[in-house]
């Protein structure tokens, strides 16, 4: 199946959307780590499903009028990654959990680092809310779209953990990035 793509300017930043014609397979911020670029064989098709729905929902989210996305997603990855990404969809807007808590949710307690690696490879940013995962002490750690964007997304959701809201000088040395 051909991958369709569309570039989109959003209130959250410029993004590349990808689709298999039925579901969103990618949402990548420009400059994001693991951004695939436009690959040979991909077809630009701004009208492909579900780009219009994704745009409407991203606009509503940016206005604070949407907390859970309904656009269909079909991220491609290993079975473990897909399990982690599915678990991310269960973290509600306005909440955060730690990597260790997410590891327990996917049946891999003690595998917080492996879960963190899977979270970092999430191909559908924002909609599959990897920004809602924080360090054990509530600090903002790792986000392929950049920590400033992670902070902005959590602020938008009124979910910025207290540890992340304190100035760096007020954090313990172990909590400093």
What key phrases describe this protein's structure?
177 residues, alpha/beta, Double Stranded RNA Binding Domain, Arc Repressor Mutant, subunit A, 2 domains, four-stranded mixed sheet, 29% helix, disordered C terminus
Plain-language structure description:
The chain has 177 residues and is an alpha/beta fold. It has a four-stranded mixed sheet, with helices on one face. The chain has a two-stranded parallel ribbon with strand order 5-6. It has six helices and six strands. It folds into two domains: 4-62, Double Stranded RNA Binding Domain, CATH 3.30.160; 79-165, Arc Repressor Mutant, subunit A (Orthogonal Bundle). A hairpin with a 2-residue loop joins strand 1 and strand 2. The protein has helices spanning 51-62, 79-88, 99-105, 112-120, 147-156, 162-165; strands at 4-10, 13-19, 24-29, 43-44, 97-98, 133-134. The chain is globular, with a radius of gyration of 16 Å. Helix 3 (99-105) packs across helix 4 (112-120).
Summarize this structure briefly.
With 177 residues, this protein is α/β, with parallel strands linked by helices.
Compile the SSE list and pairings.
Blueprint lengths: L3 E7 L2 E7 L4 E6 L13 E2 L6 H12 L16 H10 L8 E2 H7 L6 H9 L12 E2 L12 H10 L5 H4 L12
Helix pairs in contact: 3-4
Mean pLDDT: 90
Identify the CATH homologous superfamily of the largest domain. Answer: Winged helix-like DNA-binding domain superfamily/Winged helix DNA-binding domain
What is the number of E strands?
6
> What would CATH call the class of the largest domain?
Mainly Alpha
Q: What is the quaternary state of this protein?
A: single chain
Portion in beta strands: 5-15%
**What is the CA-atom radius of gyration, in angstroms?**
16 Å
